[in-house]
């Protein structure tokens, strides 16, 4: 089995005030996998999953005792993806757009991060 992974992300964060900020992010991911025999030759085919997306989040920061930090954030995001599959001895090819609501389209991203202030 051979697997290669590539993940790129870019984020820009801007403070609105001491306790709040906004962040713009873009991401790209690619995973490729194939089955190999003992000599390293591809035998069963290859599959590639590609995803991309972006979003804008707004958040607040709370500092406790000048040590602990609690960040909360919420904002819209958009993501999409596709899968390419090469299979069989004749090299059949199939292309799929991932059409599940969990992985594509407009959604909202929310989260909490806990850390140390320094």
Descriptive notes:
The protein is mainly β. It has one domain (2-57, 77-105). Helices cover 0% and strands 80% of the residues. The chain has no helices and six strands. It has strands spanning 2-17, 20-36, 42-64, 68-87, 92-97, 105-116. Strands 1, 2, 3, 4, 5 and 6 form a six-stranded antiparallel β-sheet that branches. β1 (2-17) and β2 (20-36) form a beta hairpin. The termini are far apart. The model has no long low-confidence stretch (mean pLDDT 81).
| Outline | elongated
Quaternary organisation of the protein chains: single chain
Kindly name the structural category.
mainly beta
- How helical, in percent, are the residues? under 10%
Mean pLDDT: 81
Uncertain regions: pLDDT < 50 for 5+ in a row?
A: none
Q: Whole-number radius of gyration?
A: 20 Å
Give the arrangement of secondary structure elements.
Blueprint: E1 2-17, E2 20-36, E3 42-64, E4 68-87, E5 92-97, E6 105-116
Antiparallel strand pairs: 1-2, 2-3, 3-4, 4-5, 4-6
Brief digest:
The chain has strands at residues 2-17, 20-36, 42-64, 68-87, 92-97, 105-116.
List keywords for this structure.
six-stranded antiparallel beta sheet; 118 residues; mainly beta
């Amino acid at each position: 089995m051979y697997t290669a992974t590539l993940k790129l992300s870019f984020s820009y964060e801007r403070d609105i005030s001491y306790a709040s900020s906004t962040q713009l992010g873009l991401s790209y991911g690619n995973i490729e996998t194939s089955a190999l025999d003992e000599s390293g030759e591809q035998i069963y085919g290859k599959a590639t999953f590609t995803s991309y997306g972006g979003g804008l989040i707004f958040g607040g920061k709370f500092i406790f005792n000048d040590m602990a930090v609690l960040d909360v954030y919420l904002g819209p995001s958009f993501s999409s993806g596709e899968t390419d599959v090469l299979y069989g001895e004749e090299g059949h090819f199939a292309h799929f757009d991932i059409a599940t609501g969990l992985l594509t389209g407009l959604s909202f991203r929310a989260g909490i991060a806990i850390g140390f202030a320094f």
